[in-house]
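Justification of computing resources. Each target in the renewal requires a structure prediction run like the one illustrated here; the chain below, 192 residues long, is used simply to show the kind of job we budget for.
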Amino acid sequence: MLNNKITTQISKTTQKGVTLLEMMITLAILAIVLTIVAPSMQTFLIKNRITAEINEVSGIIQYARHLAIDEQINVIVCPSADFEGCGTNWNNPKIVFIDTNADGNRSLGEDLLVTTSKASNSTKITGPNTNIHFKGSGAASQSFSIQICPSNDDKTYARALSVSLQGRVKISSDADDDGTHEDMDGITLTCT
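Resulting structure tokens:
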């Protein structure tokens, strides 16, 4: 009889659980929190992806310009689908190389100095239809702008990177505080 009493006490103290009401309250609270947090998390992820892409493109362009100045040589930045020749789709990986024969394309014997990865599927990058060419002075062969948008074309997340003829890089800003960035000329960025 003593063994039954001990066994009964042990089994009563080790059995624990939650009631149906407690479970429903917990699920309701979780649903409310997810409803509030999910949109903020999506915004956070989009902004971080765009920032990462703009920083990567800015970094490779600034590297190319500084190399051109340091070595007093022609340096090219361009998108490339195969890391061999230049293309015009800025969603492809970007490459940097010294253009020793000054033909504007990567030729045999012109080593790749830096490459980037392909753009994320959640972003779209548009840029000039030509290579970015830096001269030994650091000047660009032309001024240009590269724009990064989310794949949903929400212009509030659009960012642009502008390079002047002097080769200076500037990232877009929201100068008028309307929630949308403007380029160097003050024109509101749009995604299409």
